[in-house]
Amino acid sequence: MEKSGFRAMLLAISDKLSEDNLTSLKFLCTDIGKKRLEKINKGIDLFECLIEKTKLGPDNTEHLRDLLIQIGQRVLLELIDDYERLSPAAAAGVLDAEKREKINIATEVIVKHLGRKWLQFGRKLGVKQTQLEGIQEKHSRDLEEQVRELITQWMKMKKENARVEDLIKALRDCNQNLTADLVEKDLDAR
């Protein structure tokens, strides 16, 4: 099921690409041979090549995100986000219930208190700059949603290794000690 959802997402992106978008994407894909690139006339064909080169897969959409940002098609990142939100491989599915609950508690505190320092916090968590920019653009007028999306992206990146302790450490590394203390207080209260 996950694979068909992945293919449906790729087809949806492919359908929304203009001829100029496809030309730009092909130009950016320097690791695909020139002759092969000349034969590609649809986005889905290019995506198939990226899958063969292991640059793209059901649980590896980062390269596609970067390409879409580079050609100025950030709006299409929403299709990837929707796929990942519904994907069984999403972070919530691989964390045990106790870890997930702790991260949910921490998320609510962080969303309320972090504010404009969320970009620095994201960098400390190891989230890529392109992802941070995508989050910023997607929720340009909603700081709380930016923080919530940041933690969601971090959980997807870390999968079963996502730990609330890492969130607290990143807060402290950003001198967000009050927020870190509030997270610890809320966790201790449960």
Q: Your description of this structure?
A:
This protein has 190 residues and is mainly alpha-helical. 73% of the residues lie in helices and 0% in strands. It is built from 13 helices and no strands. The protein has helices spanning 2-16, 19-28, 34-39, 43-52, 62-70, 77-86, 91-94, 97-113, 118-125, 129-138, 143-158, 164-173, 177-189. It starts with a helix and ends with a helix. 31% of the residues are buried.
What attributes does this structure have?
190 residues; mainly alpha
Protein topology:
Layout: H1 2-16, H2 19-28, H3 34-39, H4 43-52, H5 62-70, H6 77-86, H7 91-94, H8 97-113, H9 118-125, H10 129-138, H11 143-158, H12 164-173, H13 177-189
